Each structure stands twice: as C-alpha cells, then as structure tokens.
C-alpha cells in the first residue's frame, strides 16, 4: 500500500456524480447530431428503454442553454426530434417538435 511506503496521510477522493446519468448522456450525444451518437443511443434504448416523457422533459427544461454546433436552438431541436423519431416513432417525434408549454403561475 502507498500509505506504508510514504510518510503522509493518504485519502481517497471520489466525485459525487462520477458519470452522467443515461438521460443526460443521451441528450449530450443528441446535441452533436452525429449518426454514430444516434447509433449508440439507440443501442442503449434497446438494452434499457428510455421513457419518452422523461427524455422530453429533460430536453425542454435542461437544454435551453445549449446550442448545437452550427444552427443554434433550431438545429438542437431538430436533432432531438430526429432522435425521438428513431427511438419512439413518428407520432412521438411530432409531439417533440413543439416545446412543452411552461406553466405560468398566475397567483397574485
């Protein structure tokens, strides 16, 4: 052990969140829009299916600050819709095309 070989205190440091969760990983890959990334996400989906509602909610609430490599928010949304169509089909892709409306707090 290192502790025995050197005269100092040794500590093990572990990150709080060492890896992004699978939904964050899928969204990060979809942002780039590369075919290879879509292939990887589809394989992940085959092994353990993503939930459409959860994926869409993450995209609509957490990806607003991200812009795609060239086309900005429109390209980012297009990449996401392409991913949704590949994983869930045309009907869900049509739903994903329009951002979910934000709930307004109208209380006075």
What are the SSEs and their pairings?
Elements: H1 2-5, H2 22-32, H3 35-47, H4 52-62, H5 72-88, H6 90-96
Helix pairs in contact: 2-3, 2-5, 5-6
What does this structure look like?
α2 packs antiparallel against α3, α2 crosses α5 and α5 packs antiparallel against α6. The N and C termini lie far apart (64 Å). This protein has a domain of 75 residues. The model has no long low-confidence stretch (mean pLDDT 85). It is built from six helices and no strands. With 108 residues, the protein is an all-alpha fold.
User: Taking Cα atoms only, what radius of gyration do you get, to the nearest Å?
Assistant: 20 Å
Oligomer: single chain
Shape: elongated
What percentage of amino acids are in beta strands? under 5%
Q: Using DSSP, what is the number of strands?
A: 0
Number of helices: 6
Instruction: State the low-pLDDT regions, or none.
Output: none
Helix content: 55-70%
Give the class from helix and strand content and strand pairing: mainly alpha
Listing every helix as H and every strand as E from the N terminus to the C terminus, the arrangement reads: HHHHHH
**How would you characterize the largest beta sheet?**
none
Distance between the termini: 64 Å
**Overall pLDDT, averaged?**
85
